[in-house]
Amino acid sequence: MTRSVPPLGPSPDELAAAFARLVETALERAERGGEAPVIRQADPETLAALAAPPPAAGRALDEALARLDAALSSGMNTDHPRFFAFIPSPASPLSWLGELAASIHNQHLGAARQSEGATAIERGLIRWLAGEAGMPEGAGGLFVSGGSIANLTALTAARDQMLVEDERAQGTAYVTAETHASVAKALRIIGLTDRQIRVAPVDGERRMDVAGLARVIAEDRAAGLKPFVVAATAGTTNTGAIDPLPEIADLCEREGLWMHVDGAYGASALLSPAHRDLLEGVGRADSLSWDAHKWLFQTYGCGVALLRDASLLAPSFSLSADYLRDGDAVGADPNFWDLGPELTRSARAVRLWLTLQAMGRDGMAAAIAHGFALAEATERAVRETPDWLVASPARMAITAFRYVPEGLATDTADAINAAAARRLMEEGYAAVGATRLDGRVALRVCAINPRATETDMRETIRRLDGIARDLRGAV
């Protein structure tokens, strides 16, 4: 007796209707401007229903899609034109299309034999991005899920190249207080303890102080430790500061250290001819992390790890197993599963490839440059508003500021600044970040969305000012 197996997917008519619904949602979202709220909160009952176990008998696809749309429409809308908190992800509809195409074909990018065309796309983009970074022939890398895994990939290679196994307990890595938390997390994953993660001082612009770094390294060598890597930053999350990359490269060459650069969002400035010189020296790094899902306008899950010498990845990540022989590399280029932590890999690069094919290099450059102009407009608006202070000037599309009227106690001013940011977001007009600079609460704008305008920036400051004054009046 043959058992009846339920179909894996819907009928052709049901599938057509479902795709029509998704197309309608996509078009509505693409056309939506700033009139939608920057945040939507789901009610507890909806969240509880979403977290319930799946039904024993399947429900209608249309009903399931409606539930899914409600789930994905709640929370912070990070590609809203006025979402300025964190480092936003203003994804291009071109990226949606590229990701959808990759999902439909569902190719495995571990080995080139499994996905010849998508592998060619990824290899080509890796070569191009490495060249834009100023890396030499022989540089390479791979697409990963984002900056966290890019940092992990690069720092694993750094550890394995710079330390023998019995030196790992004495190995030391160098960061600053402004370094992204994912760097410290990666260092812990590869076996370093907190005492091995050394925090170098910063200068008045919150950049790594190279003279101070040299002193810490010398002290550690004198104590019998093994310095092996410096993690510089090209565009800090707090203020957009760029560490002095040429001077750090000089120091690393003198000291025999690996130079890693976390360029998760800031490396994208390399693609703007008007701004690429800000990252002078990045091509001398041994490794670079770069997120396409930030300032290259891709959907989440699209990052890059680049190495100055691509051959240094395989010693850390290559493997062999009988069941992998059918995917053995063809030609001189190794398979991607031998260059990073993943065996099973999706075609992450195709969405960026499609975006660049449609926008062109000039279009991408203009979109990146727009972010610089928006941050500068924000700084001007703050300077023109009484009782507001620029805490950090516009750099790399980020500026920070605070409300500091005369006579207001420091703690009270801090509370008002934080509360003003919360209320602005709750009202739905814009989301600005709240951070601490020099021990004081500061508000922070990261303006990388090409759909945002200078009018948006001025109105955001005007509304923050009104909220802050209302809060002060209630004190």
UniProtKB/TrEMBL annotation:
In-chain residues carrying the UniProt-annotated modification N6-(pyridoxal phosphate)lysine: 294
Keywords assigned: Aminotransferase, Decarboxylase, Lyase, Pyridoxal phosphate, Transferase
Cofactor field: pyridoxal 5'-phosphate
Annotated SUPFAM superfamilies: PLP-dependent transferases
One cellular component (GO) term of this entry: cytoplasm
UniProt keyword annotation of Cytoplasm present: no
A GO biological-process term: carboxylic acid metabolic process
Domain of life of the native organism: Bacteria
Keyword Transferase assigned: yes
Listed Pfam families: Pyridoxal_deC
GO MF entry, a single one: transaminase activity
Similarity section: Belongs to the group II decarboxylase family.
Name of the protein described by the UniProt record: Aminotransferase class V-fold PLP-dependent enzyme
